[in-house]
Design a protein that fits this description.
globular, mainly beta, six-stranded mixed sheet, 808 residues
């Protein structure tokens, strides 16, 4: 018996010794998923920290299926920190006395409860590659607190901003800009004006969707830019106040606020911007190669100034755990003044003056946009991430323009003084149904949508009768134009998430009915067309820190009100612009292959090819009396082959570097009014940003960018170089900061020039712009938070009509 007991003691001692040996290693396991869709979150940052010193012990990225494994010595208490772009970080305590800690499924959401004794110190990655998009985490960029949303666009992969503040997506200005996944009247007209008035501090992230899935409307040849505003509101309130003054343009004030009380939540922002009235020089030179060659030169000054206000508001009410009601109200208004003072001289083939006059012009512009939306979201008891959403939105946007033109010092010129009026806009109603069912491996999405859109334009021209000294209406330059465009669509898509692969594919059917009416001349237009638009994307997880993506999609370019509007703009009598209501949609095919690596910072490189026929292009033709007319026409065969590079690299713990670059080869050709045009060449951009942070709260930023001349069907546009230097000081535990930025300090003005040419003529245009300026301001954070606001996962996103971010 004693021998038996002694044997048992030896066996127990042996197992104890073995257990003691294993206990030197702690293994922490888990899986990270999206709290709303239950889809796995690959490439999330996972850090194991010493609970006492907060110093990192082990760090890694989650796999494509969201799983992770970390090992560390036992005997200590640890904190596991999880961070992912677009999600609130989470910290979990880990008992170091255990040998294996399995945390199970960990949910990350857009907001989380603030822990009383722990602060999140993990560094969020700037760029995230998903199966169908690239996401730039604006809040992880230290410059987001001091620059505008437009300036932030220069840093985002695949995007660029030229010298006229036109945004390009892979060199193309035909795309859609969404706010929180929805088309917004905030972007009515020129979106650059709105983004200049919006602080980047109000934005959570920017998504560049070069291969839009089937749930998005098919409009936008280059893809979609989706701006996600901050919505991490919790019980209590949270906000920022930002005020800055620019030495050239004037002041800007921004307010961001989120709040929650019980089941009721609010998030919103407000911005007010003043751009003082300023004038800068311009020059237009044209040569005509007809039987009797001639030339024309214009020199003078253009002046402009405006005041803008915009606000975005979202209100949500949690009826219960399965029912959510939310409402959206957005508003944008911009009013401005215009001035023009120019001399025009035309010469014949012997250099004799054939025509001359002095023009003085003044006028006003006004733009507005309003959105009102309502969403109802229903969850299901057996799976709360299975969602059915019904949405309605009304949008009203418009612009008005008045020009008063007078001439004197005339030689062989008898065009009377005149006034022009144009009131144009869009009213639309949208109803939408969406369903999503995220299963374990397969996610199913389906929906239906109806858009009832009404474009309108009322314009007239009044000329001065010198005998009566009265302005008389010109019947041939007066019209009431309406253009009804109704779009009905169905979509179905599927996503399969495997260990190393993610596949996403779908198809979208769109029916478009068009009815146009030129009431004053009795002309009408009635037609319809169908489009079946496929999309497919795939992501291969090469290892825990890199992936490979492929995407294909078809996109539609439908004309918008600016391109359709038949208003003849004669504010410069020698250079007339007019829209074309007979434009038809065009289809493009996009292919993309990209590689991403996240070993240290992020590195993304991609190549892409697109081709389309019958695209909408700007075309300019000469006419009688040395007058050129610019309009839009379906004339372009467009092919693009390009490469993009984006890198965010931490040179040290305090010093970061961002590189955003693109190179494109472009081929264009088309026929207009019996003339054949062709053009090809290279274009691209590069933007470099670097920031350095000191221990005492100072941050120094350097931004340098170059945007090349872009290839146009009949010529080239301008190139642009910019440089900016800023310093920021954080105070009072980062609740308050002051900053000063010097932009382009070496020249007061820069010159943006263009040229257009054909076998019949050549035109050179140049415009001076204020270049050097100093921007100074402060930002203050306030609030106290402790729980999450719930918000709709689905909603209306009208991305089916053309957005013109600038030249095409």
């Amino acid at each position: 018996m004693k021998l038996l007991l002694f044997g048992l003691l030896l066996i127990a001692a042996a197992f104890g010794a073995q257990g003691q040996q294993v206990s030197h290693v702690l293994t922490v396991k888990g899986k990270i998923v999206d709290s709303a869709t239950q889809s796995p979150l690959g490439y999330a940052t996972v850090v194991l920290q010493d609970a006492a010193t907060k110093s990192p012990v082990k760090a890694s990225l989650s796999k494509n299926d969201g799983s992770f494994i970390l090992t560390a010595p036992t005997g200590k208490s640890y904190l596991l920190t999880l961070a992912f772009v677009g999600y609130q970080s989470k910290i979990l305590p880990v008992a170091g006395a255990d040998t294996v800690v399995y945390l199970g499924t960990i949910l990350l959401s857009g907001a989380s409860k603030q822990l009383a004794t722990v602060t999140v110190s993990a560094v969020k990655p700037l760029v995230r590659q998903e199966v169908d998009r690239l996401t730039y985490n604006v809040q992880a960029d230290p410059e987001s607190q001091v620059i505008t949303a437009l300036d932030m666009m220069r840093k985002v992969p695949l995007l660029s901003v030229d010298g006229q503040d036109n945004i390009k997506l892979r060199g193309n200005s035909n795309y859609k800009i969404l706010i929180n996944g929805k088309e917004s009247a905030l972007m009515a007209g020129n979106p650059s004006d709105v983004l200049k008035a919006m602080s980047a501090s109000n934005i959570e992230r920017i998504e560049v969707i070069a291969t839009p899935p089937a749930k998005y409307d098919a409009e936008g040849l280059a893809g979609i830019i989706n701006i996600i505003t901050k919505k991490n509101a919790v019980q209590g309130y949270n906000g920022i106040v930002k005020i800055n003054y620019n030495s050239v343009y004037g002041y800007q004030a921004n307010l961001g606020l989120t709040a929650k009380e019980g089941k009721l939540g609010y998030s919103g922002f407000f911005s007010n911007r003043e751009q003082r009235y300023l004038g800068a020089g311009f020059e237009n030179l044209s040569s005509y190669y007809g039987p009797l060659p001639s030339s024309i030169i214009q020199t003078g000054t253009n002046s402009t100034g405006n005041h803008s206000t915009l606000t975005g508001n979202e209100l949500s009410y949690e009826i219960d755990s399965l029912n959510l009601l939310s409402a959206t109200v957005n508003y944008n208004e911009r009013n401005g003044s215009l001035g023009n003072d120019q001399f025009t001289t035309a010469r014949d083939n012997r250099s004799n003056i054939s025509l001359a006059y002095h023009t003085m012009g003044n006028g006003t512009t006004a733009n507005h946009g309003t959105d009102i939306g309502l969403d109802y979201q229903l969850g299901f008891k057996h799976n709360k991430n299975e969602l059915f959403t019904t949405s309605y939105r009304y949008s009203n946007s418009g612009s008005s323009q008045f020009s008063n033109i007078a001439n004197d010092q005339t030689i062989n010129y008898n065009l009377p003084d005149y006034r022009q009026y144009n009131n144009a806009g869009t009213k639309e109603q949208t109803a939408q149904l969406d369903y999503i069912d995220p299963l374990k491996v397969l996610t199913i999405e389906a929906g239906a949508k109806m858009i009832l859109r009404n474009y309108f334009s009322d314009f007239q021209t009044d000329t001065l009768n010198t005998a009566s000294n009265q302005f008389i209406n010109e019947a041939n330059q007066t019209n009431n134009f309406t253009y009804h465009q109704d779009v009905y669509s169905l979509y179905n898509s599927y996503q399969v998430s495997l260990t190393d692969w993610v596949f996403k594919g779908g198809v979208r059917f769109e029916r478009t009915d068009i009815n146009a009416d030129f009431s004053s001349v009795g002309a009408t237009l009635n037609k319809g067309y169908n489009n079946l638009v496929p999309s497919f994307s795939a992501q291969r997880n090469l290892n825990s820190i890199s992936n490979l993506n492929f995407g294909f999609t078809q996109r539609i370019q439908r004309p918008g009100i600016i391109q359709l509007n038949p208003f003849v703009n004669q504010s410069n009598p020698q250079y007339i612009t007019v829209g074309n209501p007979a434009l038809t949609p065009a289809i493009t095919n996009n292919f993309e292959l990209s590689y991403g690596n996240y070993a240290k910072g992020s590195f993304n490189i991609s190549t892409h090819y697109s081709f389309s026929n019958n695209t909408i292009q700007n075309v300019t033709t000469p006419g009688a009396n040395d007058v050129t007319t610019t309009t839009f026409a379906n004339v372009g065969e467009d092919r693009n082959l390009g490469a993009d590079l984006n890198a965010n690299y931490p040179l040290s713990k305090k010093w970061g570097l961002n590189l955003n670059a693109e190179l494109l080869q472009v081929w264009l050709k088309g026929t207009y009014n019996g003339s054949f045009y062709t053009n090809s060449g290279q274009q691209g951009h590069i933007f470099i940003s670097s920031n350095y942070r000191t221990d005492n709260g100072f941050r120094f930023n350097l931004d340098i960018g170059f945007d090349s001349r872009y290839v146009l069907l009949q010529g080239r546009d301008n190139y642009f170089f910019n440089n900016s230097y800023s310093v920021v000081k954080e105070l009072f535990n980062k609740k308050f900061m002051v900053y000063v930025a010097v932009n382009n300090p070496f020249d007061k003005f820069n010159t943006l020039d263009f040229f257009t040419k054909s076998a019949d003529f050549q035109t050179y245009n140049s415009n001076q712009n204020y270049y050097r300026n100093i921007n100074a301001g402060f930002l203050y954070r306030f609030g106290k938070l402790n729980s999450t606001i719930k918000k709709n996962q689905r909603g209306i996103q009208n991305d089916d009509s053309a957005t013109s971010g600038g030249k095409n």
